[in-house]
Write a structure and sequence with these properties.
The chain has 10 helices and no strands. With about 120 residues, it is mainly alpha-helical.
Length: about 120
Protein backbone atom coordinates (compact mmCIF):
# COMPACT_ATOMS: atom_id res chain seq x y z
CA UNK A 1 0.00 0.00 0.00
CA UNK A 2 1.29 3.44 -0.85
CA UNK A 3 2.26 5.75 1.97
CA UNK A 4 -0.32 8.33 0.91
CA UNK A 5 -3.06 5.69 1.00
CA UNK A 6 -2.01 4.60 4.48
CA UNK A 7 -2.09 8.18 5.75
CA UNK A 8 -5.52 8.84 4.26
CA UNK A 9 -6.88 5.57 5.67
CA UNK A 10 -5.50 6.12 9.18
CA UNK A 11 -6.76 9.71 9.24
CA UNK A 12 -10.21 8.57 8.12
CA UNK A 13 -10.40 5.73 10.64
CA UNK A 14 -9.33 7.98 13.53
CA UNK A 15 -11.75 10.73 12.53
CA UNK A 16 -14.60 8.20 12.39
CA UNK A 17 -13.57 6.73 15.78
CA UNK A 18 -12.85 3.34 14.23
CA UNK A 19 -9.82 2.78 16.42
CA UNK A 20 -9.65 -0.99 16.12
CA UNK A 21 -9.14 -0.83 12.37
CA UNK A 22 -6.82 2.17 12.74
CA UNK A 23 -4.73 0.23 15.27
CA UNK A 24 -4.38 -2.70 12.85
CA UNK A 25 -3.17 -0.42 10.09
CA UNK A 26 -0.79 1.44 12.40
CA UNK A 27 0.77 -1.82 13.63
CA UNK A 28 1.15 -3.06 10.07
CA UNK A 29 2.69 0.21 8.82
CA UNK A 30 4.48 1.22 12.05
CA UNK A 31 7.89 1.93 10.52
CA UNK A 32 6.50 4.17 7.78
CA UNK A 33 4.05 6.03 10.02
CA UNK A 34 6.61 6.89 12.67
CA UNK A 35 9.00 8.52 10.22
CA UNK A 36 9.02 12.29 10.81
CA UNK A 37 8.00 13.18 7.26
CA UNK A 38 5.03 10.79 7.26
CA UNK A 39 4.03 11.48 10.86
CA UNK A 40 3.59 15.18 10.10
CA UNK A 41 1.00 14.35 7.43
CA UNK A 42 -1.30 12.62 9.93
CA UNK A 43 -4.32 14.42 11.36
CA UNK A 44 -4.33 15.58 14.97
CA UNK A 45 -6.46 12.58 16.06
CA UNK A 46 -4.23 10.13 14.22
CA UNK A 47 -1.07 11.67 15.72
CA UNK A 48 -2.51 11.35 19.23
CA UNK A 49 -3.50 7.74 18.58
CA UNK A 50 -0.01 6.91 17.29
CA UNK A 51 1.46 8.49 20.44
CA UNK A 52 -0.85 6.37 22.62
CA UNK A 53 0.27 3.21 20.84
CA UNK A 54 3.91 4.28 21.16
CA UNK A 55 3.47 4.80 24.92
CA UNK A 56 1.84 1.38 25.24
CA UNK A 57 4.78 -0.21 23.44
CA UNK A 58 7.31 1.58 25.64
CA UNK A 59 5.75 0.79 29.01
CA UNK A 60 5.09 -2.85 28.16
CA UNK A 61 1.32 -2.68 28.48
CA UNK A 62 1.06 -3.90 24.91
CA UNK A 63 1.80 -7.45 26.04
CA UNK A 64 -0.88 -9.31 24.24
CA UNK A 65 -3.25 -11.51 26.13
CA UNK A 66 -4.87 -14.38 24.33
CA UNK A 67 -8.61 -14.85 24.43
CA UNK A 68 -8.16 -17.75 26.85
CA UNK A 69 -6.06 -15.53 29.14
CA UNK A 70 -8.82 -12.92 29.14
CA UNK A 71 -11.41 -15.59 29.95
CA UNK A 72 -9.29 -16.77 32.89
CA UNK A 73 -8.99 -13.22 34.22
CA UNK A 74 -12.72 -12.62 33.81
CA UNK A 75 -13.42 -15.88 35.62
CA UNK A 76 -11.15 -14.75 38.47
CA UNK A 77 -12.96 -11.39 38.61
CA UNK A 78 -16.32 -13.17 38.67
CA UNK A 79 -15.31 -15.54 41.49
CA UNK A 80 -14.03 -12.64 43.60
CA UNK A 81 -17.16 -10.57 42.89
CA UNK A 82 -19.38 -13.50 43.91
CA UNK A 83 -17.24 -14.13 47.03
CA UNK A 84 -16.38 -17.60 45.82
CA UNK A 85 -12.82 -17.24 47.08
CA UNK A 86 -11.95 -20.93 47.10
CA UNK A 87 -12.32 -21.12 43.33
CA UNK A 88 -10.71 -17.71 42.82
CA UNK A 89 -7.64 -18.86 44.72
CA UNK A 90 -7.53 -22.08 42.71
CA UNK A 91 -7.60 -20.07 39.45
CA UNK A 92 -4.79 -17.86 40.77
CA UNK A 93 -2.64 -20.81 41.83
CA UNK A 94 -3.07 -22.55 38.47
CA UNK A 95 -2.14 -19.42 36.49
CA UNK A 96 0.41 -17.52 38.61
CA UNK A 97 2.52 -16.62 35.55
CA UNK A 98 -0.49 -15.03 33.86
CA UNK A 99 -1.27 -12.86 36.89
CA UNK A 100 2.32 -11.58 36.98
CA UNK A 101 1.94 -9.94 33.56
CA UNK A 102 1.28 -6.20 33.68
CA UNK A 103 -1.37 -6.47 30.97
CA UNK A 104 -3.19 -9.09 33.04
CA UNK A 105 -3.20 -6.90 36.13
CA UNK A 106 -4.91 -4.18 34.11
CA UNK A 107 -7.80 -6.60 33.52
CA UNK A 108 -8.40 -7.20 37.23
CA UNK A 109 -11.14 -5.35 39.09
CA UNK A 110 -10.20 -3.46 42.25
CA UNK A 111 -11.41 -6.22 44.58
CA UNK A 112 -9.64 -8.86 42.51
CA UNK A 113 -6.40 -6.87 42.70
CA UNK A 114 -6.61 -6.87 46.50
CA UNK A 115 -6.95 -10.66 46.63
CA UNK A 116 -4.24 -11.08 44.01
CA UNK A 117 -1.80 -8.99 46.07
CA UNK A 118 -2.68 -10.85 49.28
CA UNK A 119 -2.28 -14.32 47.74
CA UNK A 120 0.90 -13.24 45.99
CA UNK A 121 2.49 -12.29 49.32
CA UNK A 122 1.12 -15.35 51.12
CA UNK A 123 2.28 -17.88 48.53
CA UNK A 124 5.72 -16.30 47.99
CA UNK A 125 6.55 -16.34 51.71
Amino acid sequence: MKTESVIILVNKMCDESRYTKAREIIYKEWDRLTEAKTYNLLSKNAKEFVMIIKAEKEDGSIETLTMSDKKILNLFNMYVRDSNLHFAKRVYQNHVELFEMKAAQNWLHSDAKIYYEAWKKFINE
